[in-house]
Every structure is written in structure tokens, then in C-alpha cells.
Amino acid sequence: SIEALKNENAELKSQISVVKDEIEKLEAKSNRKTMNQNEVKSFNTLLAEGIEKNADAIAKVGRHEAKNAGFVLDTKAITMTEAASLTGSIPREYANKVYELPSRKVHLRSLLPVGSMSQGIFTFPYESADTGSVGNQTEGSTKSQLDFAITMQDAPAQYIAGFLKISRQMLDDVPGMTSFLQARLLEQYLLQEDSQLLNGNGTSPNLRGLTVAASAATGAATVDVEQLVQAIAQVESSNYSATGILINPTDWAAIVNTKNTNAAYSLPASTVVTTDGSLSIAGIPCYKSTAIAADKFLVGDWAMGAQIMQHTGINVQFSEFDGTNFQQNLITVRVEARIAFPIYYGGAFVYGDFGNIA
């Protein structure tokens, strides 16, 4: 009958409503579970929750009704840093770079030409002297004779290298650590290379540096700028072209702060300082670098006087196969290059002392 159908329909609606309520409860429970799974908890928080949930079992131990009580913490929810320190409740986030120490602004490599070599020794012919000269000839007479003294000079390739060890965990966990190590090891290499290119004594495994091969400054001036002008003239008197002046930042500052007897800033007419602090003397650029000691200067023909020859270019390598690294989860990071440094013309450089430091 119609009445029976109405009752059956009402019963179906009631059942559907019950099912719908159950589905909503299950969805709510599922959402809570998902939220809890995504929640990051500290060790202390999880420990407190575990003690609360197992309070009865722990109390029985206190009453000597049970020998022991225990529970397992969900350590998957503990952050790596918290698990390591077991303190604090604030998750840690690492910066995406390593804030390294400042680097030297000018390296000698940026002032010199760089070439390549395939053997262990770079040999170059060097004209050490010449005799005779070209002259006018009268008919029937003997022409003038010239002699060039050519000797072979050797520049052996030497290794400049260093390494450090770092844990694999730090390499994996700290963002930017790999690029930081590459940059910092390169900088450390360049510092040692600067030292060799400037001051190496030439005895293996050292290179022969520019300050050893350069001519000593012969000018009599005592004012800093005048000494540099005289050094430029000394280089060019030997038919080279001065292309750069290397000075320490403290000496750059002393020149820029030059004052006259009235305490007014007064740079010589040959000196130009641009708004960015670039300094040039008699048209020759000055490069300020901590590579050269304070109170010293080196003026030279950097394009013609010397060259870096690379047998093996600068490279940074990572390896776990070094000593006991594999057993200890360590990584060795090495930087090295093998270079020779032929100085073609010692007279192309003039090395001097300002005389401001006793």
C-alpha cells in the first residue's frame, strides 16, 4: 500500500542518514590522523605524552606490583636536530648558504696571462745579452756583425695543494656546504699561489717569485707617489711598458689621503682617484691587494714580463676513499694545481720600499 511505501522510504532515509554520519566521523578521524602524522614534535613532547598514556603501568612499578614498564616513542616525528640534541621544542631550519670569511679582492692570477703546458718542465729561450750593432757600410768594407746570447731557461711545474676532512653528515645536511667548500678551498689555493708568484725563492718545490726576479727600485724620491712615478720610468727606460702597480691597501689609503702643509687634501697632478676608489698614477692603474706587504710596491709590465703555465689547472675534488674515511663516514676534499711560472724579463718589474715603516 501507499502507507507501507511511505514507511519504507522513511526507514531508508534514516539508514542513509546513519551511514552519512559514520562516513563523516571516519573522515574526521582520518583528517586528525593525517594532521598528527604531519605534526613535528620534540623529544620532550613525545616523552610527556608517553608518560601520560602509560601512567598506570608506571605507577604499578612504583607500588612494586610490576617489575618494569615501558613504551616506544614515535621517533619518526622527531626532527633530526632535536633527536641529536634531545633538548628544546623548536624545530631548526638551516640557512641555504654558508657565511664564509671575506676573500682577498685581487689575486696575482688576475693580473698575469695564463697558458698551458703538457710536460713537467717549461723551457723557453732567453736573450741574456747582445753584442755589436747594425751600422752603415761603405763600399767594399765588411758589414757590422751582431751576436745574440741565447740561453735556455727552465721553469719546472710545481704542485700547490691542500686538503681537509669533513663528515658526510655535514655535507649532506647543511645546504650549500659543497659550494662553500669549493669556493673557500679555491680561495685558500689562490692565497698560497699569490705567495709563490710574489715571494717564492725558486728552490724546489717553490716557484721563483716576482720580487726575487725584479729589479730593485733605484729612484731617490721619498714621497710615495713620486717613488711610483720613478719606478714607472725605470720600467719604461728598459723599453717595457708599465701596465700595473701592486700596492697594499694601507699604502693606497696613504696616497689617497695625501695632504699639503695646510692640511688640505692635495694629490699630485699625475694622480687620479675615481668615485669608486680606483687609483691611477701617470695613467697606470694601481691594484690594492693584501698579497703584497704593507710599505712595498711592485711596478711592472704584467702582460709581457711573466706568465702562469698550467700543467694541471686548479681543481677541487671530493673522495671518501682516503685512509679510514669509508669506515668513519668522512669525506676528503682536496684542492690542487700544478703550475710553472716562467719570468721572461726580470727587468720588466721594479720592486721597492716606500720607507714609511722602519
Unreliable segments (pLDDT under 50, ≥5 consecutive)? 33-38, 80-87
Strand order of the largest sheet: 5-13-10-6-9-8-7
Give the termini separation: 123 Å
Let me know the CATH homologous superfamily of the largest domain.
Major capsid protein gp5
Structural class: alpha+beta
The CATH class name of the largest domain reads Alpha Beta
What is the average of the pLDDT values?
82
- Overall 3D shape: elongated
Instruction: Please give the radius of gyration in angstroms.
Output: 38 Å
The number of strands is: 13
Determine the strand fraction and express it as a percent band: 15-25%
Helix/strand order: HHHHEEEEHHHEHEHEEEEEHEE
CATH fold-level label of the largest domain: Major capsid protein gp5 fold
Supply the number of helical segments.
10
Describe the structure.
The chain is elongated. It has about 350 residues and is of the alpha+beta class. The longest helix has about 35 residues, at about 1-40. It folds into 2 domains: about 1-85, no CATH class; about 110-355, Major capsid protein gp5 fold (2-Layer Sandwich). The chain has 10 helices and 13 strands.
